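Model it.
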Amino acid sequence: MEDRVIGIDLGGTHIKGILMSKDGEILQKLHRKTDDQEASRGFTIWQERIKEMVEELSEGNSYAVGISAPGLPRADGKAIAYMPGRLEGLEDFDWSNYINNPQTFVLNDAVAALLAERNFGAAQGYQHVMLLTLGTGVGGALLIHGKPYIGNLSRAGHLGHISLNPDAETGILDLPGTLEYFVGNATIIKRSMGKFSSTHEMVEAYKSGDHYATQLWMDTLKKLAIGISSLINVISPELIILGGGISQAGAALFDPLQELMKTYEWRPGGVSTPIVAAQMKEFAGAIGAAVYALDTSL
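Modeled.
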């Protein structure tokens, strides 16, 4: 039936898939491991798994398919053009040819998450929204006049790659002292001098009153507040949404962050920018991919 659409979200650890009605009802969910390490040794396990998931969800029907993945989408929307460092084999891999479906549309994973929030989550009713995904790194996406803004080369929205310190260590895009470096989970071992293996572990120590964890977490949130305040001055959104694994820290994140924003955010006329948690959670990328496929195939 053509009143349904498939959404696939490819991540470095997991692949999620959904079958969704045009009204937004989730009819079926699938969840598989990515096994990127095996793929990097010459296998294409995650590619095969996505094809199998599409076949299982479609059951022989010709549904439009949206595929969310990290990286910059190609201009024709059929592949990821640029994704350094992860998921070897993803760059320029044409998904429409591989799954034999011309109605296949590829987009960036953070943009997909924002579309899910726009249609069904925290961004409903807003025109100008900034999404920050706080996880292994710091990703992002922008909603301008109710539509995703991707800019030239689909590069817009890489909010984690603003620099906070020109003298700090260089990040994956050769820019020093990025917001991603100071907040992302990938650097927590280095930033904690080996004491914490994950941001979650640091936050739990902070909750239990550990002095070093408190210092490190407050420094992390200070840099996050400065980064967000800087971006507010450039983009001036109505709403900021925080998603990703680190955002699940809840009050331990949002309460001190709100206090720090009082210091760093420019608030003309006393108007502050609301900062809220993402609502769509685990399947946000797949839902957003399905929304994108639905919008693009019309």
